[in-house]
Design a protein that fits this description.
Length: 396
């Protein structure tokens, strides 16, 4: 850990702290940061965190010292920060880089530094109680907990490799079929590496059913807002809502059963960087934003990616071939207990989960930036044909 106290956010970053952090993480040896400039990145794309590119100047030449890096801090928006603290998203991402990143066969940014303040005893006590309360009670307390967490002085900081020069995806515009194919090949490689693996059995990684009652309660609370906004896109929303009302909790619990794997949890174009030039397979993809990792059914990541991210004009035709390509890549990477029929069935169920997730996101966060809302709009628009088609056939 760096010797200097962690900054609360970008405004508190100093040259001394950057020097201390980079030395602690092995990014520099004897060099010291003498000056820096930062610019905020991804406004409207990242709901929970604040990203900035920091360009650095040093007091001496050191060839391996980064000339720029990406700093990540909690969101300055109170509601979003509070949600990130309550859901332990900031701590989870830092632990991912510390404990898991080097063990995975996928490309992730180099982490130069990652640390968070120790959890106060009072916060640990609250977490212990919440895990044992009925979902309805937690729901009743949630707004108060988020509001309180928004005022927390606990600090979290990440310094990551700057992928400037690589091409970041754009979920609003959508991707080509070839881009989707290599992204899904990389995802299959990632899933296969932790398939039913003890590597994911860590206390800080939740299973998808750990907070199922709370997620289900949030869905029920935010569904009317979702219905109001998307009734014209999803004409059978009443039918979808009725199915989720009956089966939503069971669906979340089903997705925690074997076979399970480590899920990225937010696998979408805005969190993927592609090598410039020609795509050459899964090695062309670098994955970022590991705040939402969970243990669960792989189809949650796959469904979250295909329809919400493939360009609208292409997705209807490309959907099944892309799913088959993913499954073939999963098998090629060594997964032997997940036949195509199970993959296809779980993918259909994941379409219903996507509607629940969309309602949750629309209602749980302060999506004050226009692009943030547009991300959800495009995802719903592209996903609606599949959900409308499969809702009559879904069985748990």
């Amino acid at each position: 850990m760096a010797d200097a106290p962690l900054p609360m956010g970008l405004a508190d970053v100093s040259a001394d702290w950057l020097t201390s952090a980079l030395r602690a993480g092995g990014g520099v040896g004897k060099a010291s940061v003498t000056a820096f400039q930062w610019e905020v990145l991804g406004e409207g794309a990242g709901f929970i965190g604040q990203l900035a590119r920091i360009r650095l100047e040093y007091d001496r030449e050191e060839p391996a010292a980064p000339r720029s890096l990406i700093a990540k801090f909690p969101s300055p928006i109170g509601q979003n920060r509070g949600f990130g603290v309550v859901a332990r998203l900031y701590e989870t991402e830092i632990r991912f880089y510390r404990e898991l990143a080097d063990a995975l066969p996928v490309r992730v940014p180099r982490c130069f530094f990652g640390a968070f303040d120790p959890e106060p005893a009072s916060s640990r006590a609250v977490s212990w109680v919440l895990q044992r309360l009925p979902g309805s009670v937690t729901m009743a307390l949630l707004d108060r907990l988020v509001a309180t967490a928004a005022k927390s002085t606990r600090r979290y900081a990440l310094l990551l490799e700057d992928l400037d020069g690589a091409r970041v995806g754009d979920q609003v515009s959508g991707c080509t079929v070839e881009e989707a194919r290599v992204a899904l090949q990389a995802l299959a490689r990632f899933h296969a590496s932790t398939w039913n693996s003890p590597l994911v059995d860590r206390a800080w990684i939740n299973r998808v059913d750990a907070d199922a009652a709370l997620v289900y309660g949030l869905f029920r609370r935010t569904w009317p807002l979702f219905t109001q906004r998307y009734a014209a896109i999803l004409p059978n929303l009443d039918e979808i809502g009725a199915w989720l009302e009956r089966h939503g909790l069971a669906l979340l619990r089903r997705f925690s059963q074997r076979p399970y794997t480590l899920l990225h949890g937010d696998y979408r174009l805005d969190n993927l960087f592609f090598d410039p030039g020609r795509l050459s397979g899964p090695e062309s993809v670098t994955m970022i934003d590991w705040q939402a990792i969970r243990v669960g059914n792989a189809m949650q990541d796959v469904a979250y990616f295909i329809r919400p991210n493939v360009a609208t004009a292409l997705v209807d035709v490309a959907e099944e071939p892309l799913l088959r390509d993913y499954h073939a890549a999963l098998v090629a990477a060594g997964v032997t207990d997940y036949p195509w029929e199970a993959c296809e069935r779980d993918y259909a169920l994941a379409q219903a989960w996507l509607a629940m997730q969309g309602a949750f996101l629309l209602g749980a966060l302060d999506l004050s930036h226009e692009r943030g809302v547009e991300l959800i709009d495009r995802a719903v628009e592209r996903s609606s044909p599949a959900l409308s088609r499969v809702i009559d056939t879904l069985t748990l």
